[in-house]
Amino acid sequence: MTDREGLPVTTPNPLGRTVIADMVVAKIVGIATREISGVRDVGGSAGRVVGRLRESIPSARANLSQGVSVEVGERQTAVDIGIVAYYGTALHELAAAIRRNVVAAVERMTGLEVTEVNITVHDVYFEGEEDGEILTDATKPRVQ
C-alpha cells in the first residue's frame, strides 16, 4: 500500500501513520555499508564518477545512497548494493559483514524486515591505483 506521493506506508498506528521514504532506507543502507572495513567505495564506476564530481563542488553534499537500490513495502524491504572492495579482502566475508550490518541498521531504525541484501562487487582497489591505473615499475615515470 502506498500513499498519494508513492511513499510506502509502514505499520498503522491509531495515533497516525508513519511513512518512510525509499531514499531514507537507501541512505541508511549506504551508511551501514560504508561502516564495514574492506569497503573502498559504494556504487558502480559511473555512479562513483558522478559522486566524485559532486564532491568537488564546495556546496554539494555527499550522496550517501549512491550505489544503493531499495524496494520498500509496508513491512519489508529488499536491498541491492554495489561496492568496490580493497584488494586482499575476503569478498565472501565482506559481503556477509555488510549484510549483517545493513540488516541490523535498517531493522533497528525503521522497523522494516529486510528480506534480502544483494551485493555486487564491481571492482577491487589496489593501493596506488587511481582512476583505474596502477603504477608499476613499467608505468612509473623514470625521472622525478
CATH-defined topology:
Alpha-Beta Plaits
Given as residue ranges, the uncertain stretches (5+ residues, pLDDT < 50) are: none
Total number of distinct structural domains: 1
CATH superfamily: Cation efflux protein, cytoplasmic domain
The number of helical segments is 3
Instruction: State the total count of DSSP E strands.
Output: 6
Class computed from helices, strands and strand pairing = alpha+beta
Q: Provide the helix percentage.
A: 25-40%
Description:
With 144 residues, the chain is of the alpha+beta class. It has one domain (9-125): Cation efflux protein, cytoplasmic domain (Alpha-Beta Plaits, 2-Layer Sandwich), CATH 3.30.70. It has helices at residues 22-34, 45-56, 91-110, and strands at residues 9-13, 16-19, 39-42, 68-72, 76-86, 113-125. The strands form 2 sheets. Strands 3, 4, 5 and 6 form a 4-stranded mixed β-sheet that branches. Strands 1-2 form a two-stranded antiparallel ribbon. The chain is elongated and about 75 Å long.
